[in-house]
Specification:
Bound molecules: nicotinamide-adenine-dinucleotide, uridine-5'-diphosphate-glucuronic acid
GO biological process, one term: UDP-glucuronate biosynthetic process
Strand order of the largest sheet: 3-2-1-4-5-6
Protein name: UDP-glucose 6-dehydrogenase
Number of helices: 18
EC number: 1.1.1.22
Helix content: 40-55%
Keywords: NAD, Oxidoreductase
Shape: elongated
Distance between the termini: 58 Å
CATH superfamily of the largest domain: NAD(P)-binding Rossmann-like Domain
Low-confidence stretches: none
Family: Belongs to the UDP-glucose/GDP-mannose dehydrogenase family.
Strand content: 5-15%
């Protein structure tokens, strides 16, 4: 099938590459010429395991192309995916300017029937706005081409995006009930048929429910994390180990093991913004989502939990202290720094006078870029962040080690070496990577999240 993907970011690029892999003819459009140039030069603008090989293979086979040419992209696909960003607006609601610009682009260039698929995460009612924007653009040209807007939210996780897309738990398709909606449904059904593997994974529903499903899923996952973080903080007070508790409750199949890891807060481009956007949607409907408001507040608090433990152990004034920081990306296996907990943690340590020597296996270039923006008006603070290309190099002469992201490379360090390098042999672990007693055996003080230690 001929597919156009509007927006070649994390979701658009993975969607395009995976749809090409199963034999479709894919055209990826982006307004950012830098991204398109990188892709056309054989590179990949993001770090995502398996993506580079997938793109290279499909480019070589002529099944995927990248361009900034809007007219050509709209002409190409019978199915037009909208996969542009929906960042938070100032009030927390989803900013739909990119989605509506994509819709207008489709309406401005289409000449025949198109299925328009909203893959971006968008508030309930957005498909109707996309439809109106396309209609308006068509009317201004005096063209009467038909189309239908389908909601097909994406559930992939960064760092496992290719696998999640290729082996989805479910595929949610929201379609209109009318004849065009049914025609669209048949096309999208055909497109996704190869992903059903051994049983049907596609869930058909109305457009609004599909849009809502995406927010409900992210809100539920964020809720589990904040719930566990709150319990972890209590476990610290009462002398319980949240890791034992996690195993104890996760073994109940009604609860399950996933997304019960406490830590230094959830980050990324989705949970924070989607929780906020759903709260705003409720607001607009004169409702309160009390639980989600608490989920967000707990997460804001949790992003400072490591700093509080550091201050409690090392004192309020961190002037002249140096911290080795392992992990900057919001989670392992990605270079994404959007809403990464490392940002507020490092900002607070710098504000208290500390300096930072950081290492991340893949996100250091991106970290340099975002920290330069975060501290654009504080050159003195920015100058106190430096980067090293190996985790062990961050340790020499540091006052303590702070772990923010659970990269595999950090899971089994040489603790004797860590102890020898640190001025104060102490680890503040925001991802509960180690068994507290075995770290203690090496003569290192260890502060995790909810592991019942004193700080
Ligand atoms: P992103 O910022 O990585 O990519 C968006 C791309 O769209 C950018 O490259 C941007 O230049 C491009 N763009 C903006 N306006 C455009 C236009 N008019 N025409 C063509 N290109 C345009 O964003 P992302 O992380 O891929 O997220 C996209 C959407 O998918 C969001 O709504 C997000 O919530 C949702 N989502 C993201 C993930 C994820 O893991 N990142 C997972 C599921 C859903
Ligand atoms: C999340 C969802 O998992 C995806 O299903 C969804 O498609 C995506 O958002 C989206 O809508 O964009 P992602 O943000 O890539 O995916 O990463 P997650 O693995 O969900 O992690 C998000 C944050 O939660 C990370 O900071 C991670 O460290 C944190 N987390 C995760 C915990 O603190 N504890 C856990 O148990 C799990």
């Amino acid at each position: 099938m001929k597919i156009t993907i509007i927006g070649t970011g994390y979701v658009g690029l993975v969607t395009g590459a995976c749809l090409a892999e199963i034999g479709n003819d894919v055209f990826c459009l982006d307004v950012d010429p830098r991204k398109i140039d990188i892709l056309n030069a054989g590179g990949v603008p993001i770090h995502e395991p398996g993506l580079q090989e997938l793109i290279a293979r499909n480019r070589a086979a002529g099944r995927i192309q990248f361009s900034t040419d809007v007219a050509a992209s709209v002409a190409h696909g019978d199915i037009q995916f909208i996969a542009v960003g929906t960042p938070p607006d100032e009030d927390g609601s989803a900013d739909l300017q990119y989605v509506l610009a994509a819709a207008r682009a489709i309406g401005t260039h289409m000449t025949g029937f198109k299925v328009v698929v909203d893959k971006s995460t968008v508030p309930v009612g957005t498909a109707a706005r996309v439809q109106a924007a396309i209609r308006e653009a068509l009317a201004s040209r005096g063209v009467a081409a038909s189309f239908s807007v389908v909601s097909n939210p994406e559930f992939l996780k960064e760092g496992a995006a290719v696998d999640d897309f290729m082996r989805p738990d479910r595929i949610v398709i929201g379609c209109d009930d009318d004849a065009l909606g049914q025609k669209a449904r048949e096309l999208v059904k055909r497109l996704y048929a190869p992903f059903n593997r051994n049983h049907e994974r596609t869930l058909y529903m109305d457009v609004r429910s599909a849009e809502f499903t995406k927010y409900a899923a992210n809100a539920m996952l964020a809720t589990r994390i904040s719930f566990m973080n709150e319990l972890a903080n209590l476990a610290d007070c009462v002398g319980a180990d949240i890791e034992a508790v996690r195993r104890g409750i996760g073994s109940d199949p009604r609860i399950g093991y996933d997304f019960l890891y406490s830590g230094c807060g959830y980050g990324g481009s989705c949970f924070p913004k989607d929780v906020q956007a759903l709260i705003r949607t409720a607001d607009e409907n004169a409702q309160r989502l009390h639980i989600l408001e608490a989920v967000e507040a707990v997460n804001e608090n949790q992003k400072q939990i490591l700093v509080r433990k550091i201050v409690k152990r090392l004192g309020d004034d961190l002037g002249g202290k140096r911290f080795a920081v392992w992990g900057l990306a919001f989670k392992p296996n990605t270079d994404d720094m959007r809403a990464a907990p490392s940002r507020p943690i490092i900002a607070e340590l710098l504000a208290r006078g500390a300096s930072i020597v950081a290492h991340d296996p893949v996100s250091m270039d991106e970290a340099r870029r975002v920290f330069a923006l975060d501290f654009a008006d504080q050159p003195d603070a920015l100058a106190r962040i430096s980067y090293v290309d190996e985790p062990r190099k961050a340790l020499a002469g540091a006052d303590a080690l702070v772990i923010v992201t659970e990269w595999k490379a950090f899971k089994s360090p040489d603790f004797a070496y860590v102890k020898a390098q640190l001025k104060t042999p102490v680890i503040f672990d925001g991802r509960n990577l180690y068994d507290p007693s075995s770290v203690a055996e090496h003569g290192i003080e260890y502060f995790g999240i909810g592991r019942s230690e004193s700080a």
